[in-house]
Structure prediction request, 609 residues.
Amino acid sequence: MVSKKVNTRPSIAGNGQPGLRLPRRHRTRGGAEPILALLPALIAMTLVQIGPMLVGVVMAFFRLTQFTIGNWLEAPFAGLQNITLAVNPTEPIGREFWGSMGLTALYTVLVVGIAWVFGMAGAVFLSDQFRGRGLLRSLFILPYAIPAYAGVMIWTFMFQSNGAINTLLGRDLHLLSSQTFWLSGAKAFGAILVAGVWQMWPFAFLMLLAGIQGVPGELYEAARVDGATRWTEFRDITLPVTRDVSRVLVLITGLWTFNNFTTPYVMFGNAPPASTNLVSLQIYINSFVDLNFGLGAAMAVIMIAILVIIALLYIRLLRLNVGEVPNG
Amino acid sequence: MAESFSYRVVRVLVLLFLAAFTLYPLWTLITISLSTATEAGAPFRWIPEFLTLHPYVAMWHTAPLLLYLKNSAIVSSSSAVVSLPIALLAAYALTRHRLRGRGVVLRVVLATQAFPGVLFLLPLFVIYISIEHTLGIPLDGTYLGLIVTYLTFALPFSIWMLTGYLAAVPPDIEEAARVDGASRMRAFISMTIRMATPSIVAVGVFTFMTAWGEVLFASVLTDGATRTLPIGLQLYESAKGLVIYWNQLMAAALTVSVPVVVGFMVLQRYFVRGLSAGAIK
Prediction:
């Protein structure tokens, strides 16, 4: 299997600088070997992700319902009907879809923004030297380690009218009625927002902490000699050096949040209040509850098209060097 | 260099807030899992009136928790064990050969994050059914279908993390082994993989965690016998009519969280290094 045609360049150990890393020189054109090594991953991803993605796009153009799904290869062609049905804002389905898209966009901006602020605050303050920081660091990443559905279940319990939120905000702090119904109407958005932030911010914290710790300490020392305050230090050093991390972070957490299905589904199942009807759940309900698979696929295609356009614009506008080879 | 008093006050306040925000649900989880069903249904108290271990006994009977635990353990560990060599091979090709690979991997990782699961859930289901009918390989409602699905979901990030780790291992070490007559692949396996073992274990744990917590595909690809924890735990909410056994649900949620939390905490520094490898330059 494995190609024997490896090249036999002399080792760089002989060039007088034994510790020097020269990765490029060590990469070879190995003929079939790299292709063979990549093949299992390519096959798996074609079968499970890329193939179904393409089939999903095709499905958006067919009349696929519970009546035709059994024999899906012979489902009637629908042309653009599913798409026009999904995007027409004068009809209930289109109105619901765009409402759901707008809601998801708002949810994404809030979760990503708050998670970034919390993560940055935690990372900046835990970069200081003081007792107990190791403990706090471990504590902060706990919500990310807990399975997402388990976290949502805890928050679902806490937002019950007899739950911990009403005890804290209502009975103890008297900020609200202690009989507030969180899990219906517009307030339910607050419930999925809090649960979403709780699980997302530790990831932002971890990435930003790693970014800050990559900064040479002399930079801060020099700034302090020049009389910098903590705030100017943050503005002039920490923010600029973590800019690349932040940009990738916002992109990844943004995509995760926009596609979030677990939070509203585990909290509300198939009947979410309108304020928690995130677009993934909306598509799921169209497909697997209303059994209109073609329409669900059409909505998913529109959603992914919009996501891809936004992501590409984001990468282009910020000149994000996704995948630039370091030390290459 | 002394920190000003006001700076320290701000730091304490911010960290206290973040710690309280993190701990509040965890405290609820622990106390309710140790409460009676009556108390779990009554207005929440910071400290339960009675402490009982009963929920941890009863949870095994209210729903077939042991079965779900077994199913999740089989599916998650198989996904991790099978995906690791696949990801390692890919990472080997990308770091040790002159492919314009790293950039491609990172773009593919980002692209897969953009795919909403709901778009390919139905097509995947339909494809699995077709394979089952034509080739006789059972993929719907079986461990196999779930394992194939989850190991693939974890591949992009696994390859991302592994390319980062392996690129950091100096190739001189492999060269040395090859001088002794080992083939390139053998040198890679015997030297580089051995040096990067903790990172590789971390990637395996990452795959395990992905499978352990996945909800959407499990809701369609499992049946009564292969149901995994994320779907199984919802049974506590509907097990006996409209009564929700919150205390047992919290006990079960805590129980199933412990293994992945421990694994994550032990290996956390490798995750941080791996996840940030692509973002930090």
In short: Chain B touches chain A through 111 residues (CB under 8 Å).
